[in-house]
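Progress narrative, work stream C.
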Amino acid sequence: MNAKKLSLCILTALSLVLPAGCGGEEKEEKEISVPVKIYTVRPEDLSQYIKLTGMVTAAKDQMVFSKTSERIEELLVKPGDRIAEGQIIARQYSALFKQTADAAKAGADNARAQYILAEANFKRMERLCSQKAISPQQFEQADMQFKAAKAGLDAAEAQYLSAKEQLENCSVKAPFGGIVAAVYVELNQMLPAGQPVAQIIDPRMMKAKIRVSAKDIQSVKKGYEADIVVPVLAGKTYKGRVVNLDQAIDPVTKTFEAEIVITNPDADLKSGLYAEFLIISRTIKDAVIVPENSLLSQTAVTINKEKGTQQNSRRYFLFTVEQGRAKIKEVTVGLTSAGRAEITKGLSVNEQVIVVGNNIVQDGQSVSVVE
């Protein structure tokens, strides 16, 4: 009984084991594809930047002053108003100046009439004198009257121009089109000549004066373009250009001053804001560009036994996808900027470079591209 039970147990065990070992050759393990993200190489421009910081101000920013001593009779603008060139922003009391100008104009008109009569008489007497019809003394008298009339006209016109200018000075005008940044006077305020009335700025064009270190001065030239980023405006970028660059270093700060003019078409860039200036010092056109995070590097050590020297160099690699498999390639890196790298050797346009998963794949390994 015990022997039968033992035989039955052995047969049962064999029946459980045999199917696993009697299937012929063992099945091959299924290859697992590594999920990766790729970047398709295309020709792009790549620029190298010098990053500097500074404060933005209005390129056209002017105080407007009163030219006469009188009270403010009309105040025609307020801060924030848009104005045109020559627009009147305030008027000072002008009744007395107008009376003076009107009287001066009447005097000039009368002097002009006297001059016309004297000129006509002079020409008539000149003709008669040439015909011996009058005496030289009569001609001299006509000549003196003509010259006196001319001098009287000149004086009257000068007096009128002066009075007219004084009257016009009662109207305070904008020197250029822009926005009223500030108003410094109130209605009916007595205002001496030479006092500020308003501040006018043109918000379409801004500027900044920034400091350039001695080590960066060779990378900044007059005419270079710049991208201006303003952090408080959600990182919005503006375009600018270097218009002036000091030729001598500041002995205290050991820096050079550069002036940048900034285009502000939407007029949303305000004076006094802090900004970052990315001056484009070099641009490569239609380069083979890859994301910098697609690159893997390795330090190579070269030993010169004869000279007893050691030289370290860095080698760069990346993975491409070819026929569903990762392929490692050694590349030569040129310019790098803003997270992008120029490849000068080892890679061509339209190749697919692994940018996510490149640190876990191996050469020849199966990969699956995911979005």
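Work stream C, second folded protein:
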Amino acid sequence: KEELALQLINNSQHEPRLYQHSYFRSAIILILALLMIMVLIGIAHALVIYRAVAMALFTQSEVNLLSKHADLIAVMTGAVLHYLTIVIMTKVNWQVALFLCDLEEPRTFSQRENNFTVKIFLFQFFTNFSSLIYIAFFLGRINGHPGHYVRIAGHWRLEECHPSGCITDLFIQMAVIMVLKQTISNIMEYLIPLISHQLRKKKKRPKKRSLMLGEEEEAEDPCKRQWLNNYELNEVNVFSLFNEYLEMVIQYSFTTIFVAAFPLAPLLALVNNVIEIHLDAIKMMRLRRRMVPRKAKDIGIWLQVLEAIGILAVIGNGLVIAITSDFIPVQVYKYMYSPCMGENHTSMDCSTGYINNSLSVFHIQDFEPHTKVLPEFKGVQIKECRYRDYRNADDYTYTVQFWHIFAARLAFLILFEHVALCVKLIAAWYIPDVPQKVKNTILTEKHSNLRNELSTTEYSTEV
């Protein structure tokens, strides 16, 4: 309605653009969006290949530091590469989303903004979280077992989880990405407008300014002087504020979806926001031109995006606790396989023996023929070794305990998600979206305006 009013104010002969829908155009946009998502997932696969190759190279390195901590260094360098791909693909995602919006030909600016928001968020979500999803739910689970490893190009083994558990790899990945995003990205976000503003000040042309407005008139009219000072600041566009929304939504995703693996994420986000709110204020008030205000009922489609993130957070954290962490295997061991179940050992910790129970036996003669023996083990008669898994020693099939753990994980996941969603719905009902004070202020203003309009109407009728 407001857009139609503005168009009629600017052009009294303006005709509204009718609603249109093209199935062919929608199909093309859907196919292109899916192709872009596949590219982003492919980049995550490339990072997986890098970590596998890097770990193999670091293990064979003559440098003691690299060979001793090959797994940790591979994970950390992979996290840095992941951050670099996020920075690069953010620019690419922006252009692709704009291209798809132009191809879609939305009827109004509001519709264009909503469509762009959905596309850029989807692309950014897969850019930021594809690698994290692999580490959380697939790392160490699709690489086979001794004697039958899954290898890249038949040569490099897929990486294993950290000895302390897969959740450690997820913690390291998230810590590196969040620290880099909250330091380098924020510094660049503030320095680029500052440098651009300084360059504009050096290149400003006083002759052009004097032509626009005489020096005497400028001195006499402070309002016009403020306009000219504002004109000399950095340019803004319709998506200048959009970047801030997108940044906060992505940060909210990081602090909620995998918070079970990285509990420090909300604290880092709080510290970052306290600093960034001051930097953004300086950037918007002193370095950029004033944006044209536009009336809005709320934050628009971002509400639906935040709602979707809330649902993903419940699912993601449930999966992290049930699948990534060792919480469920430990509980199954305590109540089904621990020494406490055999006799009444009140003084014994029921977790005693868990590590040994979580390791399976592998016979050395069952290794692949091309498997190389480390130099320190040559000449040593070793008949078997242990590895993290729940498999039988004879045919390497899954044990009964594996299926008990699998069933417990599934039951916990269903229970956790239902309870969390119920708590979420109760909290949404209990805490109002709009504070009562704001509602009362709006109600008072509406009542006052309506009273003034009615009194004016009565006065006009009496006259």
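Residues 166-294 form one domain. No further action is required on this item.
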